[in-house]
Predict the 3D structure of the following.
Amino acid sequence: ADLFEKNNRREAIYDIDKTQIQITEPTDPNSVMGKRLAQNGPHVLHVAWEVEGLRGIAQDLMANGNKLKNDDIDGLTHGSHGYSTINISPSSSHGIRLQLAEGDRKL
């Protein structure tokens, strides 16, 4: 496992074949993540898949009426581990937080 602490959180990333499991713990109870944990208790934040052609996928999703985080720009964000990501709003995915990611992990 890769273990590290940054941005008010402690993380462990486990690589199992082509699957990656990331476990995150807030280190600041007043951070966004700390407040979410206090309000909702332990939970799965989102499920993510690796894809190719992320920018085109974001455009297709928005053209079909899906709401994305940062859809006022181009829908893409850059994750803390070096990935480019699309975060699909739960309002567009039956209440589940979905993420699509492209790129290589950088710790």
The CA atoms of residues 6 and 27 lie 9 Å apart.
